[in-house]
Structure formats: C-alpha cells, structure tokens
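Annotated sample (chain length 139).
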Amino acid sequence: MSEKKWCPENILEVLGDSLCRDLLLVANGSPASAHSLAERVSTSLPTVYHRLNVLVDYDLVVERRRVNESGDHYRLFETVLERAELALENDEYAVSIETGESQTSFESFWNEFRGASTDATGDRSAESANAESTDSSPS
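Output written by the structure step:
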C-alpha cells in the first residue's frame, strides 16, 4: 500500500467528484463488486473502475480479491474512509484523513488468501462458515 501525502488539492479533487462520493457511500459497510457498484450508481463500468482506482490509490477504498468455488477470480471494493477534515492552520489548509483499515498488510493478505475473515482468536466468522456451506454456483 502506498503512502499518499494528502494535500488540500488532492482531497478536494477526490471528494469533490460526485461519483467518488457516491461510490464511497454505496461501498460503505459491505464489500461490493464493480458491476454491482456501477448498477447502483447508474454509471458505466469503465467509469466506475476509473474512480475506484483513484479511491484505492488514495487508500479511501480497499480492494479485496476473492476466488469462488468454480475458481473464478473477482474483486470486491469496500470504503475504509471514516473521516476527512480540512482545516485552516497558520494561513494554510491542513488535511486529516482517518480510515478504518486496522489490519496489517500481512493480515489482509492472509485473510484474502484464505477467502474468509477471522476474529482475534483466529476462528473463522460464522458468516464465512455459513457462506461456505451454501451453494454459491452462478445461476
């Protein structure tokens, strides 16, 4: 994950884009595919991918790769932005960004590799266990 130096121009440009704001709202709380996001914001898939790449680059959205039971790879996107603050300090603008991404890079990699979330004890969540027990073949 790259470290971004947030400057007022960056945050105003990214959050000033209405589609970026809509994607942040729609992807908040539960991961969604780009196709699902495109449908929900009524925008073309290439445009959604472009904005998601910007949001991922600035660490406002995380991208998680998954593999389904038939071996197909897919990506899910989830908002991690919790707070953005723009303030005037010493005749300059200052930006503060808070995200909810608390896992280390290795923990994220490992959980994505396993395709399941774990709690602090390493036990798989009930949601992940239930997802595995249901048939998820495409219709």
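Annotation: Residues 84 and 111 are 27 Å apart (CA to CA).
Annotation: Residues 8-119 form a domain with the Arc Repressor Mutant, subunit A fold (CATH 1.10.10.10).
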